[in-house]
Amino acid sequence: MHVIEAKGFKIPIIGLGTWTLHGRDCARLTEQAIRIGYRNIDTAQMYDNECEVGEGVRASGKRNEVMVTTKVQPTMLAPLDLERSVKESLARLRLDVIDLLLIHWPNPRVPLSETLGAMAKMRREGYARAIGVSNFTVALLDEANKLCSEPLVCNQVECHPYLDQDKVIAACRRHGMAMVAYSPVARGGVKGDKLLERIGEVHKKTATQVCLRWLTQQGIAVIPRTSKIERLQENFTIFDFRLSDTEMKKIAGLARRGGRLVDWSYSPDWD
User: Fold this and answer.
1) Which of 22, 28, 129, 160 could form a disulfide with 186 if both were Cys (CB 3.0 to 4.6 A apart)?
2) Count of structural domains within the chain
3) Is 47 within the bounds of a domain?
4) Cβ-Cβ contacts under 8 Å for 230 (sequence gap 6 or more)
């Protein structure tokens, strides 16, 4: 399994995102992904599917091989709320430990030092094996790494060819953190992209596979979401070819203003 290492913690470079997956479908897809070879499953308190994700992980019989990520929602970042919510997440997942625990979104109403103090405590007390952040800007990454007493291993952010995230990628590298890309195929937006299709023809791959390969070849982990079992295999079959430097540059050239898909009223001031 291809992994990236950050501060001694290993993150499988391809995972399954489970946002919008629910019920039996969610449990079934999670289990099937693990059977195919996925070792990275991503959920969050906000997704309201931790029970089903946990069920799929347990049903696979491979719990000890799988890294499960969950994320603390922004309304739960005050220390006592955070601690309670993490214990509730573990109970819903019905797992022994959360492998990777992230702050889902920054919340300017709660001092970051307090939130990170509670996150560090969760790691020290064995509720989480590793901790990190999501949707953090360069400035927030700098601040978080100064404040946190335990290592922050990753920043999970929107990342795909239409959004230039070079500044955030550089900040992650500077801090020794892994970069994890959500919406890595722009929520299906790369399908039908003429450039990606042309490059795909050369390698006998789909536009989606080319896009995922472009990210992973840069050492960025990806967690594409899918609700289709046949798509699980397609997304996973990206390590049997390599993009040339020219192809990598051409794909990077797809970035454009307005390429961001995920932007809420509570989003930070993006870089």
Assistant:
1) 160
2) 1
3) yes
4) none
Domain containing residue 64: CATH number: 3.20.20.100
Burial of 225-248, coded b for 16+ CB within 10 Å and e otherwise, reads bbeeeebbebbbbbeeeebeeebb
Range of the domain at 223: 9-187+219-230
- Name the average pLDDT for the chain: 97
Three-state DSSP class for residue 125: coil
Confidence class for position 222, pLDDT limits 50, 70, 90: very high
For the chain, how big is the Rg over CA atoms in Å? 18
> Which residues belong to the active site?
47
Among 211, 218, 166, CA closest to 4? 218
Residue 243 and residue 217: Cα distance in Å, rounded? 8
Q: Which long-range contacts (CB under 8 A, 24 or more apart) does 138-144 make?
A: 138/167, 138/168, 138/171, 138/271, 140/106, 140/112, 140/268, 141/168, 141/171, 141/172, 141/175, 141/177, 142/171, 142/175, 143/112, 144/112, 144/116
- Give residue-wise pLDDT tens across range 63-115: 999 999 999 999 999 999 999 999 999 999 999 999 999 999 999 999 999 99
Give domain status of residue 266, yes or no: no
CB of 11 within 8 A of CB of 131? no
Flag whether 253 is in a domain: no
Q: Is 261 a member of any domain?
A: no
Residue 165 sits at the vertex; the CA angle it makes with 161 and 166, to the nearest 5 degrees, is: 110
What six digits make up the tokens of 53? 């994700």
Tokens (6 digits) for 2:
């291809």
